[in-house]
Amino acid sequence: MLADTAFVELVSARSTALLRTAYLLTGDRALAEDLLQESFFAVYRSRHRVRELAALEGYVRTTMVRTLISWRRRKSSRELPYAVLPDAGAVVEESAAFGETWPMLQALPPKQRAVIVLSYYEDLPEAQIADLLGCSVGAVKSHRARALASFREGLPQARLSGTEDLR
Question: Is the pTM of this model over 0.90?
């Protein structure tokens, strides 16, 4: 069983990085904060199951992905904003770093988005992503292939026409 101090150290040291991951998974800053807080709470409640300090962050990441998928299954999670919020500029600044891919990432289904975020942002291997999502490595590959196909379809036509000239 890990001491409370180990958990507090994790929260202090890694909460910013985990919040970025939560933001990429949800596409909404407030929802990302809720997701991370709920995940921290769930891991704190079950911290007696964690034997190694190094595994604690993995438990939080797994809990975030599974909690998000659970939220998406609930009908109550299908709420839509009715207006642009005054602090939306902060979200735009964060998403500007992703350029054209940000809207496409937001449009992906939750599991495909999770695979893309965990693969390319967190740089996790397929086996670890499969463990996090509770699926097979083949399913991870399938989700990634579908997501990348969606990305290819969403690229502006002008960029595609430039590649055709190279043939």
Answer: no
